[in-house]
Design a protein that fits this description.
Elements (H helix, E strand, L loop, with lengths): L18 E5 L2 E5 L12 E5 L4 E5 L21 H8 L4 E7 L10 H8 L3 E3 L24 E2 L5 E4 L2 E7 L8 E5 L4 E5 L17 H12 L5 E4 L8 H24 L3 E2 H8 L8 H17 L3 E4 L2 E4 L2
Parallel strand pairs: 4-5, 5-6, 6-7, 11-12
Antiparallel strand pairs: 1-2, 2-3, 3-4, 8-9, 9-10, 10-11, 13-15, 14-15
Helix pairs in contact: 3-4, 5-6
Organism: Sphingopyxis terrae subsp. ummariensis
Protein name: Glyoxylase, beta-lactamase superfamily II
Pfam family, one: WHD_BLACT
C-alpha cells in the first residue's frame, strides 16, 4: 500500500464524470468515489473509436464503497457519465477486472441500458471477518461470458486479450489492447500504491507470480483502475517485486526476535502509517506469513507466528 495524506489523498485537478482521451482508442471516465483506498476514484476505461466500444471496470453505482468511506463518495451518477461518454456508439462488451464493489456493480445497469453482455472475470463472493482494506466483493456480479487467459474479444478497430493475474483476488484479469500495447491492470499494478493482498481470497504467492508474468511481457503502458498511467511498466513491476521481497525479509527479521502477532509486526514495520490503513497493512503481512508458512519458513500457534527452526 502507498502513503496517503491525512487531509486529502487525491489531486484536485481530476474531475469525476469527465471523459478524458488518453490515446486514439482509449478514454477514461473517473467515478466520484475518492478515498484512501481508491485514490482519485475508480477509473472506467472506454476502448474504441469506431462504431462500437468496450467498457473496462464500469465501477460503482452509489451503493457504498470501502469501509469508512463517507456516504456521498460512493459513485452516484457514474453510470450516467459513462453513457454520456459513449453516446452515438454501441457497447460491444462490459469487462470487469475483478469483483470488488468499486469495480463491477455498474456492469448490470450498463447492460440494462445498452444491451451489452458482461464479459471477463469469473464471479466470486466471499465472507471475510478480517479487517477489510478495500471494498467487499460484489455478490450480484453475473457475467454472460467468463474469459480465460489468452482469450480475445474484438470490435470495430480494436481487439482485447485477457491476461489472468490472480493474487489481489483469485479472479483478477488484466486486459491487453492489441493495437496499441496498452494493458488495463485493474488493481494488480498501480503507480500510486501497492495492491492490497487480503486473505483468504488474496494470495501472495499468486500475486508475485502474476507480477513476474507481467514483467516478462512487453506492454507499452499500463492503465490501472486507480491512479496515473504507468509509462515505464517494467521498471515499476521490478520495483514492486523488490518491495514485496523486502517486506518478506522484514517479517523474518521481526520473527528472529521471537514469536509475534500480526498487529505488533505492523506497528514495527509501518512507521508513521495512516491509522486508517492499519487493517490493510495487517492483511498484507498475513498474506506474506501464509506464503512463508506454505514454504515451511514459519509456523503459528493460534494467532502467534514464529520461525521454523
Amino acid at each position: 500500500m502507498g502513503g496517503v495524506s491525512e487531509e486529502k489523498p487525491w489531486p484536485d485537478t481530476i474531475r469525476a464524470g469527465d471523459c478524458e482521451q488518453h490515446e486514439p482508442l482509449v478514454r477514461r471516465v473517473l467515478a466520484p468515489n475518492p478515498s484512501p483506498y481508491t485514490f482519485t476514484g475508480t477509473q472506467t476505461w472506454i476502448v474504441g473509436a469506431g462504431r462500437d466500444v468496450a467498457i473496462i471496470d464500469p465501477g460503482p453505482t452509489g451503493s457504498g464503497m470501502s469501509i469508512g468511506d463517507p456516504p456521498d463518495a460512493n459513485g452516484a451518477g457514474h453510470v450516467d457519465a459513462i453513457l454520456r461518454a459513449v453516446e452515438g456508439q454501441s457497447v460491444a462488451a462490459i469487462l470487469c477486472t475483478h469483483t470488488h464493489r468499486d469495480h463491477s456493480p455498474a456492469a448490470m445497469p450498463l447492460k440494462q441500458a445498452t444491451g451489452a453482455p458482461i464479459i471477463g472475470c469469473a464471479p466470486l463472493a466471499l465472507s471475510d471477518d478480517g479487517p477489510r482494506a478495500d471494498s467487499a466483493f460484489d455478490p450480484d456480479y453475473a457475467p454472460d461470458r467468463v474469459l480465460t487467459d489468452g482469450e480475445r474479444i474484438a470490435g470495430d478497430g480494436w481487439m482485447i486479450e485477457a491476461v489472468a493475474t490472480p493474487g489481489h483476488t483469485s479472479n483478477h484479469l488484466c486486459y491487453a489492447l492489441m493495437e496499441s500495447g496498452a494493458l488495463f491492470t485493474g488493481d494488480h499494478v498501480m503507480a500510486w500504491s501497492t495492491s492490497v493482498v487480503s486473505p483468504p481470497d488474496g494470495d501472495m504467492a499468486a500475486y508475485m507470480a502474476s507480477l513476474a508474468k507481467l514483467y516478462d511481457r512487453d506492454d507499452r503502458v499500463y492503465y490501472p483502475a486507480h491512479g496515473p498511467a504507468v509509462a515505464k511498466p517494467k521498471q515499476l513491476v521490478r520495483g514492486m517485486l523488490g518491495h514485496r521481497r523486502q517486506r518478506e525479509r522484514q517479517i523474518l527479521r521481526e520473527l528472529e526476535k521471537g514469536p509475534r502477532v500480526v498487529p505488533d509486526m505492523v506497528k514495527h514495520m509501518y512507521k508513521g502509517l495512516d491509522p486508517r490503513l492499519t487493517g490493510a497493512a495487517g492483511r498484507s503481512v498475513l498474506a506474506h506469513l501464509l506464503d512463508l508458512e506454505s514454504r515451511g519458513r514459519v509456523a503459528r500457534d493460534a494467532d502467534c507466528w514464529r520461525l521454523v527452526a
